[in-house]
Write a structure and sequence with these properties.
Length: 203
């Protein structure tokens, strides 16, 4: 099983972080995402945002009372996040293994990240998102949908095509509370969004 993030994608985000950051800042706010988080996350809970990018969503979480730490594998994006939001803690960590994280959280948020992983690494990524989630905690997980076959953009970023069942089947100790397939208010792209709670004892 591939246990590394796609290197070309990581290099693209690291080397051109300021441009990607500005693109996200220029988009409309993702109010549909924030409504789901406000409805489902453990209020004021200890929260990990995995793949935090420039810290936009971590800042929203902090402003709404969550004890949030942002994690990303791209050092350039982490630098942008720390510059834009110096009051928030940002740390380096990489899917699918998340070996850098040894604590657990009431809430785990992973917004449009796993589609940058090779398909065979996605179950491992979901397993480690579960690992850092406390019992009765809430997981928000989303991915941009690519149909039929993987796509490699000119900038090097990988968008993997995969069936949602790959994700759902990996949530072996969780109950899925919500699954939706729609268009993001912010990016205008087709996105699958899932909310699950870890409510079954691991054997």
């Amino acid at each position: 099983m591939n246990s590394r993030f796609d290197s070309a994608t990581l290099n693209a985000y690291s080397q051109d972080a300021a441009r990607y950051s500005q693109q996200w800042l220029d988009q409309p706010p993702p109010n549909d995402l924030y409504a789901l988080l406000e409805t489902h996350l453990v209020p004021e809970g200890k929260t990990a945002e995995i793949g935090c990018g420039n810290g936009r969503d971590a800042a929203w979480l902090a402003a709404h009372g969550y004890d949030v730490t942002g994690f990303d594998a791209a050092t350039g994006l982490l630098a942008e996040a720390r510059r834009l939001h110096p009051h928030i803690t940002f740390r380096e960590a990489s899917l699918p293994s998340l070996t850098e994280i040894d604590e657990d959280f009431d809430n785990v948020v992973c917004e449009t990240v796993i589609m940058h992983l090779p398909a065979e690494a996605i179950p491992l990524a979901v397993d480690n998102l579960r690992r850092i989630l406390r019992r009765n905690g809430m997981l928000y997980l989303s991915w941009r949908v690519t149909e039929e076959q993987d796509e490699r953009l000119p900038d090097g970023r990988l968008y993997t095509a995969f069936e949602p069942s790959i994700v759902v089947d990996a949530l072996v100790d969780c109950a899925v509370l919500l699954f939706e397939d729609g268009v993001s208010e912010s990016s205008g792209k087709r996105v699958c969004r899932l909310i699950a709670t870890k409510n079954i004892d691991e054997s």
